[in-house]
Amino acid sequence: MAERTKWVARGLRAERPGRLVWVDIKEFDNPADADNWLCGYVRENGLSITDFTIVRREGGRK
Fold it and tell me: What is the pLDDT of residue 31?
């Protein structure tokens, strides 16, 4: 059985002053769903899109 590619919405989080890390927010099966969800999330919460990204992960690993 072939493992599927996952698309992960990630955001920057401040662990402590001066230390930013990327954290996974939500996982999707296709990039369009990830993009639509992330744009809506940013818009609804008044955030900056520059603090978020979407990455591809082969095989659906976390």
Answer: 96
Burial 41-59 (b: 16+ CB within 10 A, else e): bbeeeeeeeeebebeeeee
User: Which among 62, 10, 58, 4 is positioned nearest to 38, based on CA atoms?
Assistant: 10
Q: What pLDDT digit, counting tens, does each position of 21-42 carry? A: 999 999 999 999 999 999 999 9
Q: Which residues contact 59 (CB under 8 A, 6 or more apart)?
A: 3, 4, 5, 6
Q: Which residue has the tokens 């990455």?
A: 55
What span, in angstroms and rounded, lies between the C-alpha atoms of 52 and 18? 18
pTM above 0.85, yes or no: no
